[in-house]
């Protein structure tokens, strides 16, 4: 929350009503419980199925000092995906 005098001028109090088109969508997209931890996986699965998306896993390999970590971090940052290091995963699995 911004505690400045001018912040009130940037505040909007909006109320929305669903459109006719939204109400005509298949019931698979409407969740009475809303988006919550209980329904987020189902929402994600339905969204991916509807858009014909699939999970993508990228493996970056190469010799030592070839830039694997550098380029992997760049990919992760630019696409907003997790960056996992095999060494960290092995340590976690064995501890």
Folded structure, characterized:
38% of the residues lie in helices and 0% in strands. The protein is mostly helical. The chain folds into 2 domains: 28 residues, no CATH class; 39 residues, no CATH class.
CA radius of gyration is 22 Å
Category by helix and strand content: mainly alpha
According to DSSP, the number of beta strands is 0
Mean pLDDT: 80
Largest sheet: none
The secondary-structure element order is HHHH
User: Helix tally?
Assistant: 4
N-to-C span? 41 Å
Helix content: 25-40%
Uncertain segments of ≥5 residues (pLDDT<50)? Answer: none
Summarize the structure.
This protein has 95 residues and is mostly helical. Helices cover 38% and strands 0% of the residues.
Topology diagram in text:
Elements (H helix, E strand, L loop, with lengths): L19 H4 L16 H11 L17 H12 L6 H9 L1
What descriptors fit this protein?
95 residues, extended, mainly alpha, 2 domains, 38% helix, single chain
